[in-house]
Structure prediction request, 341 residues.
Amino acid sequence: MILLDNSLLQLTEIFNEVAPYKVKQLYSWLVRGYDFDEMTDLSKEWRLKLADEHIACPVVLYRRFESKDGTQKFLYKLSDGNMVEGVLMQYKYGNTLCVSTQVGCRMGCKFCASTLQGLVRNLTAGEILGQVTAVNRFMGGDVKERQITNIVLMGSGEPLDNFDNTVKFLQLVNDKQGLNISMRNISLSTCGIPEKIIALADLNYQVNLTVSLHSPFQQKRCQIMPISERYPLTSVVEAAKYYFNKTGRRIIFEYVLIEGENDSEEDAKQLSKLTRGMSCHVNLINLNPVKERNLKPTTSDNAKQFAKKLGVSNTIRRQIGVDIEGACGQLRRRIMADESN
Ligand code: SAH
Prediction:
């Protein structure tokens, strides 16, 4: 069993033959990213038994790349040999870790590298949490002095397509006895699955919802995001409004600018119309080119023009970590290809 899949309460029930204070010690090691052989205040006997039957560190740092701008990219190895990626961005106010929720993805967005292989499998809650515990430890962090202050669920995978594990992860990472990262410091990014957005809203967490919009026209959106055929734009926007009404959290719309696809004046005007009157912010991102796809980023001049015409609160996201393959999914693919040769 991946022990990080469980809360302290659950662990206490699982190890009900062990004194609760010992289970508490175990939990404290787990959430700090330690393996059994390092848990020096537990008996050797119990540690050996635990190691025989369970996994303490479901996510192991496998490779690390540092960008000139300080951004770090991690490739992690999971217990079954699968790999996922993560990015650590350092800001003045703290460090943000971008985590993956699935190995691969089945949403099929045309501009995204994570979907090229399809969905391999869901990550468990403990495997999502394990990314945070591993990087927090690597950066010299602890539970009291965390090195990770913010989390974005924007790595590979569609979090709402792995709803139960994602929700469990949110609870675990927010646990007062664990890393205790505030829901307000977590952003969940989705391609837009209305019924799951509504289910998340009904949980009434204070998590920020980020919706990947990428086109204000239903037909065009379907061309770059095939999932839009099943979940039309209007129902996604309705669900986003529901989320805001329920939680009071301002919605962020992500919009990747792709030359000739969604970066015209008409697109800007329609996007403005679509989001008018909503409590929202538009995050404009220039496309990270993905080799396998024939799509190009817009020019930076056009990005500025687009932002101006929008007339809705927006920012053009600063490109970070471009020299270490910013686009999610790229790094994993390249290293796996290199290693199979
Ligand atoms: N599945 C979720 C989260 C993962 S993608 C979602 O769709 O939101 C996180 C963000 O990165 C999304 O807004 C996605 O559209 C964007 N993205 C994907 N590929 C990109 C690329 N090549 N360049 C720039 N942004 C990209």
In short: The longest helix spans residues 233-247.
